[in-house]
Amino acid sequence: GDSVTQMEGPVTLSEEAFLTINCTYTATGYPSLFWYVQYPGEGLQLLLKATKADDKGSNKGFEATYRKETTSFHLEKGSVQVSDSAVYFCALSVQTGANNLFFGTGTRLTVIP
Amino acid sequence: ETGVTQSPTHLIKTRGQQVTLRCSSQSGHNTVSWYQQALGQGPQFIFQYYREEENGRGNFPPRFSGLQFPNYSSELNVNALELDDSALYLCASSPIGDRSTDTQYFGPGTRLTVL
Predict the structure, then answer these.
(1) Nearest C-alpha of chain A: how many angstroms from B103?
(2) Were both Cys, which of A57, B25, B77, B104 would link to B29 (CB 3.0–4.6 Å)?
(3) Which among B95, B94, B85, B92 is positioned nearest to B109, based on CA atoms?
(4) A48 vs chain B: nearest CA distance in angstroms?
């Protein structure tokens, strides 16, 4: 079935450090891939997406590249800020039926000054 | 543009009771999905409504049911509440004419506690 495996946390980084959160997926067909972010006390916000192989999604300094050959969609940021502290979810959807989202378990990131 | 809103914010029920959660989709969106997020977990798909009909369902029992109204708002009903139903319930909507592009916009959620 369709699923996402996400790097377990929590992850603690110093401000301006490099961030990588690993995400791999299993899917039938050709999924779209997403990173959502959940700030403390808030709902999920779409951070970035990619809809086909080799696409790169980017937003707010975060990037992720859809790698079909390795079934991966790792999230990266060159220099994290305290305000990036949140829980990050990798997700996929396949364009059949309800095209609902399948989420990973989330990775909690804490950035310390 | 108004985003996805949900009510109530928090709710406490006892085992065996019934609960109704409400969601107003973002303006221009005709598809609504509901997800359950247990503490420390990723959201899990409950079901989706498109043009007032159920359009897909995840691995949840029939005591989880829903409705979508002509204005595209939606309700999630849970009967015979169990302790494991305690979770954050998220509503997400998608734009009209954009059903195939996957992007879903989430509300802030309703925190349900079952005692």
Answers:
(1) 8
(2) B25
(3) B92
(4) 10
